[in-house]
Amino acid sequence: MQEIITTSTTRRHENLIQVVQSYYQLTKPRIILLLLITTAAGMWLAAKGEVDPLLLAITLASGTFAAGSANTINCIYDSDIDYIMERTRWRPIPSGRVKPRHALFFAITLAVLSFTLLTVFANLLAAVLAMLGIVFYVGIYTHWLKRNSVQNIVIGGAAGAIPPLVGWAAVTGDLSWAAWLLFLIIFLWTPPHFWALAIMIRDEYKEVGVPMLPVIAGDEPTAKQIWIYTLILIPFTLMLVYPLHTSGMVYAAFALGLGAIFVKKAWQLLQSPEDQKVARSLFKYSILYMMLLCTGMVIDSLPVTHHFVSALGNNFHSWMSGAVAVISSVCHG
Fold first, then answer.
1. Distance from chain centroid for Cα 12
2. How far apart are CA 295 and CA 119, in angstroms?
3. Global confidence as pTM
4. Distance CA 58, CA 43 (A)
């Protein structure tokens, strides 16, 4: 890593609001939102739909701090390639608005806050998992894999799959098979999601020497990998229903409907792997897919949903019994 900032491109803050905005940008808030949604889904499933509001708020705040810390360190490490790419040149560090040492102090502060809050208000397991997410994202993905391996996003995707484990552990203090299945679902979802983006900005990755799959293998092999991972993903999402019985039929309807659209879009990309519009459509949908899949988990876990499904089942059973009785009487009459 090297700092490539010239005097001619260095910018300065003019007021406190701009300072806050720069440090806020370092955390990459748009990425954090999806991580928080998966964390909340893990908590709702673990709590069977009855989450302590205070624990939820503290866990999500801690998750925000942990993810913000990891993203800030990522910005420090990648400041050299961010400066090369026009799209990222005006980020806080390459533009000179924030010095790397100040950003590092900011990242450490966020990590300490995250660990402290989770340890005090949740448990040590949740806190350790949050720190593990930072270490994996920074050490394994950013430092080791991103610039050296075509499998960078596959292995590195494990970092983005840790938040639901944090959420589950915060509620229960342990990790069940269902928690690990949530981890696996996000782990399998990450390659189709990120490789669709990589197809869109392949030339930028090529310019800075990052060996993303479309750069090394091309769009067609990447589209095939996206198709394969998507086909593998969908059955695993249904394992929450069977054999784990963690979720019910409401979630199953979400998983099947959303999965069918995901498969369709992956198939469209497989047919036109170099079509940027198709790749963009898949990328945007992959975000919506994960958000709605987690929403389905939450809705399915709520007690009111269980009561509604149970009442609906009882009414259907009564109706069927009545229908059978009528048919039987007619046949014997």
1. 34
2. 27
3. 0.90
4. 12
